[in-house]
Structures are given as structure tokens and as C-alpha cells.
Please model this.
Amino acid sequence: MTAVLYDLAGTMKRRTLLKNMGGLLALPALPAFLKDNPEAAPVLRVAHLTDVHLKDKFGAPDRFRRCLHHVQSQKPDMILNGGDIVFDMNKENLDAINTQWNLWHSVIRAECSLPMHYTLGNHDVWWNEDDKGQALYGKKFSMDQIGLATPYYSFERAGWKFIILDSVHLDIDNTWYIGKLGEEQMSWLEKELNSTSSTTPVCVMTHIPILTATNLIEDDIVNKWVMLGGDMHTDTSKIINLFYQYPSVKLCLSGHIHLREKLVYNNVTYICDGAVSGAWWEGNSRQTAPGYGLIDLYADGSFTEKYVTY
Model:
């Protein structure tokens, strides 16, 4: 296992981190592939938008429209949507839910010409305990809205494989959510990686981070940090052990925490690309301004990326 390198916006100076971690070397400014092939072009540009939390308040629709215009000015080939698409479905009535989704569809139809691939966030799930008998209870309503037959899936484009995972599940008491895959999805993921050519680089997207260090910057720590199952995957160790067997896994994208974070472990880069909504359309989330990720993917599995504030 290799050491961890993380970059939390506004929390730790890069030079301080490197000094404290001894012989750990910083990542090169450019991938080796680009150094050897300075004229090489990326095979794909991806915009990663997460945690839009769209609602008709705080000027969110107009601000999201401006975000979409900004994204498209960067000329990406597609958008990966990291979940929490609408503001909140949990315990809302059906009229409120329909209003949120109708707003989403109207903005996307009018303002976005790019293909978009989705995963679901915890705010996209209808978990009103009084509605368990209804067919729309759980994830079905949102899956129907965005055209998903299954909550996890994969696709290939420009020589890269994209694996979209469903990270949001009910806790053991069935009243709140935790981050995990579950046995069925974990088995599917293992088969998916096993059936993928070792020369095909893999990008994984979840809503809840598979791995994050942002729990270390919580306020009012007394004598230990508490890791909540809703903040990071509870099956992190299993997933990391699986990825270790497949070096083709290069990049894991997430949202949920509304903070910009970049963490490298076992040669896999874990990135949380903040939130389009910032602090739910009320300013910055800590030191992270509203924004999105922009990623250039190269044929050899390398990539360059940045967080773009719009």
C-alpha cells in the first residue's frame, strides 16, 4: 500500500503536506505520456457536475443555466452527473417532487446540448416511510426521470470504460442512508473489471466518496474523529482491495461532500468535484466555491483535471 496524498481546498498548504510526509513525491505537472508526446491530444474531455440540488429558490435556475453555458464553452464531449440532481426528494410529497423534476427537465432541454450520464444521490431517493407501499418508493421515480433501467451500469467511449456505481443505500434500521455497494453490486463490479481489457483505462463515478479525508476537518473534535456511514463508503476497504487487483482503474469521481478534494492512493486518484450549488445555493461550502470538474482523458490512461468555478 502506498501513502496518501490529499489536497483539501483551503485546509492544508501543499508544501507543508510534502514536508510532513517525508519522501512522498508530488505528482508531475503533466502525465508522462504528454511529456513524451507533447503534441498528443486528449481522446475525451469530460465535465463532472455534481450536487446541483436544483430548486426554484435563491435564483438557482438562472445560476444553473449560467453554469451550463460555462460548461459548454469548455467544449466537453459529455457530462457525468454525480447525483443530488434535485434539491431533495426525501419525505417530500409528490407535488413537490414533480415540481423539482419538471424544473430540471425544462432547464436541461433549453440549455444543455451535451449527453449526460447520471448516478443517483441521497437527495434523489424517495424515502418517506409512509409511502413504502407505493410503486415509486425508493429510487424508481428518479430512475424513470433520467432514463435508467438499473442504478449502476457501465459504458465505453474513446477507449475508456466508465463504471457508474450506486452508492446510496438504506442503513440497517431502514430510516437513513449509508454509502456502500452491497453484495450484488460488488459482485457485478468485480465481474465488470475482470471482463475489461487490462489496456482499457477505467473511470469510476459514485455519489458518496469511496475514499475521502474531509472528515478530518470537521469542527469541534474532542479526542477522536467520528466517521459516519453517510459521509464515506462503509465498504471502502473491499473496494480498494478490488481496485488494487486491477491497475486499469485510474480515476474515481464523487460528490456529496460539497468540497473540492483530490486524494491519491495505490495509484488511483479520488476526486470530489465540490458542488454546482456550493452550499445549497447559499454561497461557498467552507472554502469551496460553486463549480465543476473538467477532465481531459488520454489514450494511455493518464489525465489532466481542474476544478472550474463558474
Notes: Residues 1-29 have pLDDT under 50 and may be disordered. The first strand starts at residue 5 and ends at 8.
